[in-house]
Design a protein that fits this description.
single chain, 482 residues, mainly alpha, Methane Monooxygenase Hydroxylase, Chain G, domain 1, two-stranded parallel ribbon, two-stranded antiparallel ribbon, 4 strands, 54% helix, 2% strand, disordered N terminus, binds protoporphyrin IX containing FE, metal-binding, indoleamine 2,3-dioxygenase activity
Length: 482
């Protein structure tokens, strides 16, 4: 029943359709001649829940109970293979039994789930978590050999991922957008009524890490409305009322971005960098996390398994952050001639990262981003926001203020990434220090440390180059330098 309710438009959407019909005939008329689609057609709710579903995802039907049960028991029965603490070592036997059980499952058909978007998303979440549990609890393969993900997980995960248009691995959606339940089911959707459910490390730090990303995502919903309203304004150029509205909305946007910066900064109070780096992040790693020399993953029973997108989750997959870049026209790919010119370092960075991260989003959300970046999403004749601001003196400064807010966000985010990853890669996991396996941990620590190559982010990219290039591309969006 929840699922049915969830797919209906919200009361706000009914209201907005009604208002359009009543007052907005020129608006509706213009829209209809261009493109009839709305954000809701892309499973985006600009009023209430943004990219989140409005209800928590229900558990899978009985035919898939084995998957759900394995996920329920995973945290108690498995430990990270690279964790040599007594507590982790005590779980090796139950871990092998869990993995053995998973290998013994038949390949279950996911087609019955494909008629319901929320069930398909739930299947993705469950299978993707199981894959990461499986791989990261398993012994390292022999030299030169890959990790093999058994077909009982690999085949259905690839099938459901193809259906959803999302990568067949743990994503931002599986850890943040879909990984929650209501604290109080009688209360409506709100960030304060969300509790994150699946946790690898079982720590409050991990729960808070997901919550921080969710807060940023939640704060971005107002921005989605601003985008929607901009695209739907019937007239802009020469219309002082409309221009004043856009200027006010740009000021609001700068405020939203500043709030998201504060949210990101807030992670420091609730997530211990050491716990993040040593207890949580290893579970996130995808096939390419440790670079080209380390063993990759093979999906048993899947043709061309090496062509799959198998990097792990990253907030770089947050559709809110991408929507922000699209709306302000940040050029991560260095396709436009903008100033200050890219540095040699900028040119060396991975310019395809943000585009690649879109393949880790639910397909409908990716389509939404493509849609809002094309003129067909805008009222007839409407130019992009940056173009309009460039030729409208009253909008130049408000536009640049919003861009500066985003540049500041990326500056701050770089400092957080440095604190949580680069600095931590040079530390020792405290739980193991002084224990008999300290030397093994030292080896591990060394292999992760910068000395053996650059500190890597999701997809094995060079982290600092990547984040700096994103910050500099944002700066290049400023009108005053161009
Ligand atoms: C402890 C907190 C965080 C850490 C350690 C962290 C770390 C990173 C790292 C290492 C990357 C590089 C790409 C990758 O490896 O995936 C990245 C990218 C990114 N992160 Fe975070 N992040 C954190 C929190 C957040 C939050 C709360 C957001 C907001 C939603 C966010 C937004 C982004 C975005 C948009 C990117 C893509 C690159 C860019 O736009 O500059 N991060 N993050």
């Amino acid at each position: 029943m929840n699922v049915v309710i969830d797919l209906l438009p919200s009361p706000h959407q009914y209201l907005s359709h009604a208002v359009d019909l009543f007052v907005g005939w020129p608006l509706s008329a213009t829209r209809k001649s261009v493109d009839k689609r709305r954000a809701a057609d892309f499973d985006v709710d600009v009023w209430e829940s943004g990219f989140f579903p409005r209800q928590p995802l229900a558990r899978l039907p009985r035919a898939y109970a084995a998957w759900e049960r394995a996920l329920d028991s995973a945290a108690t029965e498995l430990s990270l293979w690279e964790d040599e603490s007594d507590e982790a070592a005590a779980k090796r036997v139950s871990g092998e039994a869990w993995r053995q059980q998973v290998r013994s499952w038949p390949v279950i058909d996911t087609e019955p789930l494909q008629c319901n978007l929320r069930l398909a998303q739930r299947a993705h979440l469950v299978l993707a978590w199981l894959v990461h549990y499986y791989v990261h609890s398993a012994p390292e393969p022999a030299p030169g050999q890959p990790f093999v993900v058994p077909k009982s997980l690999a085949v259905p995960l690839v099938a459901i991922s193809q259906h959803l248009g999302i990568a067949p691995i743990l994503t931002f959606a599986d850890t943040v957008l879909w990984n929650w339940e209501f604290i109080d089911a009688s209360k409506p959707f709100s960030i304060d009524n969300m509790r994150f459910v699946n946790l690898f490390s079982g720590t409050e730090d991990e729960r808070n890490f997901y919550l921080t990303s969710a807060q940023a995502e939640f704060r971005g919903i107002e921005m989605l409305r601003i985008i929607d309203e901009y695209n739907n304004l019937p007239n802009i150029e020469g219309d002082m009322t409309a221009i004043s509205k856009v200027a006010r909305d740009l000021a609001r946007l700068a405020g939203i971005i500043a709030d998201i910066s504060d949210i990101i900064q807030g992670v420091r109070a609730v997530v211990d960098p050491h716990v993040f780096y040593w207890d949580l992040r290893p579970w996130f790693e995808g096939s390419d996390a440790k670079g080209p020399e380390a063993p990759g993953w093979v999906y048993e029973g899947v043709e061309d398994s090496d062509a799959l997108d198998l990097s792990g989750p990253s907030a770089g997959q947050s559709s809110v952050m991408h929507a922000l870049d699209v709306f302000l026209d940040v050029d991560h790919k260095l396709r436009s001639r903008r100033y200050p010119a890219p540095s040699a370092e900028n040119k060396r960075a991975d310019h395809g990262f943000m585009d690649r991260m879109r393949r880790y989003m639910p397909g409908k959300h990716r389509d939404y981003l493509t849609w809002i970046s094309t003129p067909s999403a805008r009222a007839a004749g409407r130019v992009s926001l940056r173009e309009l601001a460039g030729r409208t003196p009253q909008l130049r400064e408000p536009f640049d203020n919003a861009v500066m807010a985003l540049k500041k966000l990326r500056d701050l985010h770089m400092r957080i990434a440095c604190l949580y990853i680069v600095t931590q890669s040079r530390t020792t996991p405290s739980a193991y220090a002084g224990c008999p396996v300290a030397s093994m941990m030292e080896r591990l620590q060394k292999s992760r440390a910068a000395g053996e190559g650059p500190t890597r982010g999701t997809g094995g990219n060079e982290l600092s180059l990547l984040l700096k290039a994103g910050r500099d591309a944002t700066r290049r969006t400023l009108l005053k330098d161009n």
